Amino acid sequence: MPWPSRKRDKGAVADKKEPDAKIAKTEETQKKEEEEKSTKPPAGSSKSGWKNWKKAKEADAGGEESKQTYCHWLLKSEPESRLEKGVDMKFSIEDLKAQPNQTTFWEGVRNYQARNFLRAMKLGQQAFFYHSNCKEPGIVGIVKIVKEAYPDHTQFDQKDPHYDSTSRKENPKWSMVDVQFVRMTKRFIPLSEIKAHHLAHKADGGPLKNMMLFTRQRLSIQPLTQEEFDFVLSLEEEKPH
């Protein structure tokens, strides 16, 4: 199964000799300019095309930008055989599709931050199924959370590679969730392509600038903001570069 102090504005101090009305007008103008500046797209061009995507998304949302909260996820799993303590760690999206009701428990997470992300998952939230530790890693499909966090039974199984002798049944250290297959992505979205967008967005302020896939690469469970999820999902409609 799956393995796992703001700088002071130069114009903030008005000349004491200026009338109050002029000062108020200046402050109002500055405030308006700051607001316009905050909503103005970053200067420069981006090969990623995220600005056109953002305009479309804002139009759909009535011009409101999505809140930066984690409501989607990325789950890594190995699609190729690898033995650990005699157990094959392979679990591809095809393996998930072959499960009864195309559902399985997502066990074996032994990193505290990743575990906490598991515990934060809510029923019905969607996640990208990501093939990792293989020749060409990337996103292959979408799953959804069908059971929220509960104790991971493998922590108590001495024969399991993820056995933890320090965990107690009365106070389990590790958790798992149940996930169900939703669909394959319309095309395979490789890590290399997502990384190219990430690098472009770091320069121009795009939605993938802080994507955890590149800031905390080793985590097998990663959160995604709505903006990150939507942008990556839009890539399935594009032809691979």
Overview of the structural elements:
With 241 residues, the protein is an alpha+beta fold. It has a domain at 72-236: ph1033 like domains (ph1033 like fold), CATH 3.10.590. The protein is 30% helix and 24% strand. The protein is built from seven helices and eight strands. It has helices spanning 20-39, 50-60, 93-97, 112-120, 191-204, 212-215, 226-234, and strands at residues 70-77, 83-84, 87-88, 103-106, 126-131, 138-151, 175-190, 221-225. The strands form two sheets. It has a six-stranded mixed β-sheet. A two-stranded antiparallel sheet has the order 2-3. The model is unreliable at 4-29, 31-48 and 61-67 (pLDDT under 50).
**Helical amount among residues, as a percent range?**
25-40%
> Strand portion, in percent?
15-25%
Number of strands: 8
Q: Residue-averaged pLDDT, rounded?
A: 82
Largest sheet: 6 strands, mixed
CATH topology of the domain at 72-236, what is it called?
ph1033 like fold
Which structural category fits the helices and strands? alpha+beta
Indicate the radius of gyration in whole angstroms. 23 Å
Sheet with most strands: strand arrangement: 4-7-6-5-1-8
CATH superfamily descriptor of the domain at 72-236: ph1033 like domains
Report the uncertain regions: 4-29, 31-48, 61-67
- Count, helices: 7
Architecture per CATH nomenclature, i.e. the level-2 architecture of the domain at 72-236: Roll
Main CATH class of the domain at 72-236:
Alpha Beta
How far apart are the first and last residues' alpha carbons, in Å?
Answer: 32 Å
